[in-house]
Amino acid sequence: MTRRLLLLLVLTLAVGSSVAYAASLTVSSWHLWAGSQALTKATCTITGAQIDTDVQQKTPTTSYGTATTLELVPSGDSPKEEQVFVQFDLSSCAIPTTGGADSATLSLYLSTAPTTSFNYDATRVTSAWASTLTWNQAQTLTYAGSPTTSPVGGTTSGVQISFPVTVDVDSFIKGGSNFGWRISDTGSGQNAVKDLATFASTDSGANVPTLTINYEK
Amino acid sequence: MKLLAKILGTALAVAATFAATGAAASLAFTSTPLSAGNASVTSCGVASLSATRNVDNAGNVTQVTIPSVPAACAGETLSVTLVGAANASLGSASAVVPAGGGTMSFSSFGATVSAASLLGYRYAVAGA
After folding, report:
1. For chain B, give me the number of helices (H) and strands (E)?
2. N or C end: fewer C-beta atoms under 10 angstroms in chain A?
3. How far is it, in rounded angstroms, from Cα A168 to Cα A146?
């Protein structure tokens, strides 16, 4: 009787402890790390371009870097097409290369509007140019494959034309080459006089080109 | 005989405790196995992470890049959450850390995320 009871006791303990042992298996080396990063937002407005000029097909070797106006005539009026070039120095904003543009807007003051509304193409320039740029030299520059933006210019004088250029400025901040933009248009209106758009240049001293950058760092 | 009865009583109580523990530990929720145990939780060597992001011309985030993921984290899962105001999640992404670690890039976050709304990132690296 005693032996049977002892045998029953041993079996019961063995079963109970083995079940409990199986239930206490452990994972020996679980890795877990969690962290966070906060971003700081700010705005920087650059008033006045580092360099701006226009180039004119009818005078292909003449530079207009010191003119108070930036003239634009559409390609449809060739051989009297005119294009605008503008470039900004972002160093005054002191944005670290680890930052980025949330939004960026180039603004040009349209002092004299054409009689026909055109879409103005802002195309990123990818090779260096100077304020002495001429039409012939502009033909040897390199450009992005398509315009960054093409806002409607309208026919109203005395207004700011805004060009969203966020993707380009984000690239500039991150160390991409910054040679600014070419403003041109591919439309065709009436003639080079009626289709002429005139913007204020930095040399005009008033309503100068601006670049506004909302950024994070 | 009284002594034997006491021993048996104690043994049965101990056995019942083990069995109850075992039974409790083996409970399952329908089809999800439940196990209990101890785990030693450590990091795979991450001290900190810092992301940069690219945007399109509309200002929406197109890519988040996280450099310097330790090689020791290879095979584990890196998760990044894009955080907005009030610590709200704007989107998230995750991927297995490749062999050698290094730079990881994410381009899909489950939603369109405006860079202007993005106020930070949360990270997690987990794995066995």
Report:
1. 1, 7
2. N
3. 12
One-letter amino acid for residue B10 of the chain: T
Number of independent structural domains in chain A: 1
pLDDT number for residue B128: 78
What confidence tens digit (pLDDT) does each residue in A175-187 have? 999 999 999 998 8
**pTM given for the model:** 0.80
Is A11 in the B-facing interface, judged by CB distances under 8 Å? Answer: no
Rounded distance between C-alpha atoms, residue A206 and residue A202, angstroms: 8
Put simply, the answer to whether B118 touches A39 (Cβ < 8 Å) is: yes
Nearest CA in chain A to B114: A102
Domain boundaries, chain B: 52-126
Mean pLDDT of chain B: 81
- Taking the Cβ of residue A40 and every Cβ of chain B, the question of whether any pair is shorter than 8 Å is answered with no
* Min Cα separation A139/chain B (Å): 26
With H, G, I as helix, E, B as strand and everything else as coil, classify residue B9: helix
Q: Which residues of chain B lie closer than 8 angstroms to A23, CB-CB?
A: 21-22, 24-26, 35-37
Cβ-based contacts of A149 with chain B (< 8 Å): 57
Is residue A14 domain-resident?
A: no
Kindly state whether residue A131 falls inside one of the protein's structural domains: yes
Paired tokens of B44: 């795979």
pLDDT digits (tens, 9 = 90+) for B18-74: 444 444 444 444 545 555 556 567 788 899 999 999 999 999 999 999 999 999 999
Q: Regarding the domain delimited by B52-126, which CATH topology (the fold level of the hierarchy) does it fall under?
A: Immunoglobulin-like (2.60.40)
Domain that holds residue A85: 41-216
